[in-house]
Design brief:
alpha+beta, 4 strands, about 25% helix, about 20% strand
Length: about 100
């Protein structure tokens, strides 16, 4: 089944814009949904995201109508700019992971 990437990004942006109060008790939180939705989107665009850990809106860069997210995965950290009706703009950030080796 082929999914139109434009519709997918529109659906992602719409789902992430829902207020946090929407939902049922026991349902995944908005933060949980956000990290999974954004991870799916960047994977579809060819980026690796193993075990998404968190997604946070970057209030200093984006604005309410134009969200920019920082997605932390087990293997990388990305800045993701979700744009309705277009592919997301994805930038891999340098992660500050500590190495066990000297």
């Amino acid at each position: 089944m082929n999914i139109n990437p434009i519709l997918l990004v529109s659906a992602v942006a719409g789902a992430l814009a829902l207020p946090a109060s929407v939902g049922n008790a026991g349902a995944p939180s908005l933060d949980e949904k956000s990290k999974n939705i954004i991870a799916v989107q960047i994977r579809r665009q060819g980026f690796a995201c193993t075990n998404p850990q968190k997604a946070e809106r970057d209030q200093t860069i984006g604005n309410p109508d134009d969200p920019i997210w920082t997605l932390t995965c087990e293997n990388a950290v990305y800045r993701v700019h979700l744009i309705p009706n277009q592919a997301a703009k994805v930038e891999r950030l340098v992660s500050e992971q500590k190495s066990d080796q000297p």
